[in-house]
Amino acid sequence: MLQYHETLKVVNPLRAQAAEMGAKLDLVMKDLANKEAQLKEVKDGVAALNKAKDELIAKSKKLEEDLDTCKKKMVRAKKMIEGLAGEKERWTDTVASLTEAQKYITGDSLIAAGMICYSGPFISQFRESMEELWRNKMTELYVERTDGVNMRSVLGVDMTIRSWAVAGLPSDNLSIENGIIMFGSRRWPLMIDPQTQANKFIKKMGQNTADVNLDVFKLSESNLIRSLELAIQFGKWVLLENIGEYIDPALEPILLQQKVKQGQNWTIKVGERSIPYNDNFKFFLTTTLPNPHYSPETSVKVTILNFSITPVGLEEQMLNLMVLLEMPELQEKKN
Q: Are 197 and 263 part of one and the same domain?
């Protein structure tokens, strides 16, 4: 008992001290919890401020980029306005010239239409005399026209003519006029081509033109009609070489373009069959005969074009070639 009493004398103060320390610990832990909560609030506030800072920096950067873009647009707009200031005069002059040319449309169109219809078989000198004759007659009849008007000035498009030159069309005036008639006439062209210039031009044009398939045939081929049927259906270009003075009557529906409307589509009868007609189809005929004689019946079915080289045409071709070689800047300006 005595030992127990002595032990309690030691333990009880310690228990009292432990209880006191435990109470103090609870207070400290409660205070720590409060401080941690405050710290979390501060950290959340700092995170929110950092996010706001990043958003403002991004917004500032975007505003700077927008400002830079606006400055560039202002510079370009200023240049455009300065450029358009000069264009206004050009447009005004263009409107005036077009208004002036409007009253010449009838006379100019008459010359161009007449040349397309009638000048194909003739050489350049005769074509020029035809145009001169018609111009003089129009003057007598008081039909207004452009001074010195000709078919090329009315129907020629510089970019198109340039593409023809790239495809091998000779640069003399006769060949260019033939190109205008070839692609501007309603009837398919039959080209008198002893030097095969037109033949080479059509072949290269077919190769250079996008979405064009060119088939080359001769009258002697046994499956010619069947091949033409397929070409018509699929919208191909067809070059029929070495035509003589006689044309197979089986080609007449194609030459006369005897199309028939069936529903929404066109058909054409070739032989005993009616086949769909594709508007992309083109038909070219060439002959190497230097001076063929075609009957009036044949002449009204096709547009005859004379590609024969004359001394004047050869001289013009050689001159253009010399200018291209010796003075390319002049040729570039012409093009």
A: yes
The answer, as to whether pTM is greater than 0.90, is no
Angular region, 169: left φ>0, alpha ψ -120 to 50, beta rest: beta
| Cβ contacts of 181 within 8 Å, gap of 6 or more | 115, 116, 119, 120, 151, 189, 303, 305
For residues 35 and 269, give the distance between their C-alpha atoms in angstroms, rounded to a whole number: 100
Contacts made by residues 202-209, CB under 8 angstroms, sequence distance 24+: 202/237, 202/239, 202/284, 202/286, 203/239, 204/167, 204/168, 205/164, 205/167, 205/168, 205/169, 206/237, 206/239, 208/163, 208/166, 208/167
Pair (151, 274) in one structural domain? no
Do 197 and 182 contact (CB within 8 A), yes or no? no
**What are 1-13's pLDDT values in tens digits?**
777 767 777 777 7
Contact 124, 131 (CB under 8 A): no
pLDDT at 280: 92
Residue 278 backbone dihedrals phi, psi, to 5 degrees = -95, 125
Q: Distance (Å, rounded) from C-alpha 273 to C-alpha 120?
A: 33
Same domain flag for 126 and 192: no
Domain membership flag for residue 84: no
- In this prediction, residues 259-267 reach a mean pLDDT of 88
Distances (CA, A) of 58 to 71, 215, 323: 20, 64, 62
3 state SS of 300: coil
Q: Report which of 284, 254, 103, 282 is spatially closest to residue 192, judged by C-alpha positions.
A: 284
